[in-house]
Amino acid sequence: MTRLTAPLGRLRLGVNIDHVATVRNARGGDVPDPVRAAKLAEAAGADGITAHLREDRRHIRDADIERLMAEIGVPLNFEMAATEEMQKIALRHTPHAVCIVPERREERTTEGGLEVAREENRLAHFIAPLRDAGCRVSIFIAADARQIEAAARIGAPVIELHTGAYCDAHAEGHVDARDAELARLRDMAAYAHSLGLEVHAGHGLTYDTVRPVAAFPEVMELNIGHFLIGEAIFTGLETAIHRMRAEMDAARAEAFDG
């Protein structure tokens, strides 16, 4: 088998702590504390922390972002919609990374990728101040060539491919659809890399679905949240992260050394 060469470095794991805040907010008060979860994730080997500050503040709050910026030692990936309010917050904090995602009040979680191709001019102007401030800007998009090309044109250095359709097909036992979605992700990761974009991926990944995506040599970072927080209820966050890290590392080793 041909030995693959990684275009960049080690596969990173970003841990999304949104749903610790979801549990906290369900009852009110301050527990469980998402910042405590972020620190535990960092201690367990997470390469970064992801937090989505939504317009309706349904999980992460403004004070959580303040504390994350002050208290964690790994990079913060600040997920946000492309709104003036969120741009101002991001520019005030200048986190390491800003990921622009679609957002609708009625959705339970982020559904699908951002429509970049139809909003190129607006998004190009929106991300420019963030880049100028030193934030690494990524765009959360579907594995679609048109969206990838638009992301490259507006000057986004990073894309994050939405893996939800692949994970949903796997969970529903639709093997053909799962394989088709996985092939699309693989092809679009390679295409994005050929355009000079750094490639990340995430949404819905589990122990059962992470290995094929982790094996793509162009993917440099996976962002995983809901599944890890759910597993942490039963095994603890450290154990859940260690196992996910092991799955990712094993897939990478098999792909590069097989």
TrEMBL record:
It catalyses: 3-amino-2-oxopropyl phosphate + 1-deoxy-D-xylulose 5-phosphate = pyridoxine 5'-phosphate + phosphate + 2 H2O + H(+). Gene3D superfamilies: Aldolase class I. The record marks 160 as: Transition state stabilizer. Keywords: Cytoplasm, Pyridoxine biosynthesis, Transferase. Its main location: cytoplasm. GO terms for molecular function: pyridoxine 5'-phosphate synthase activity. Pathway: Cofactor biosynthesis; pyridoxine 5'-phosphate biosynthesis; pyridoxine 5'-phosphate from D-erythrose 4-phosphate: step 5/5. One of its GO terms (cellular component) is cytosol. GO terms for biological process: pyridoxine biosynthetic process. It is found in: Cytoplasm. CDD domains: PNPsynthase. 3-amino-2-oxopropyl phosphate binds at residues 16, 27, 204, 225-226. It is an enzyme of class 2 (transferase). Its EC number is 2.6.99.2. Homooctamer; tetramer of dimers. This is Pyridoxine 5'-phosphate synthase. It comes from Halovulum dunhuangense. The gene is pdxJ.
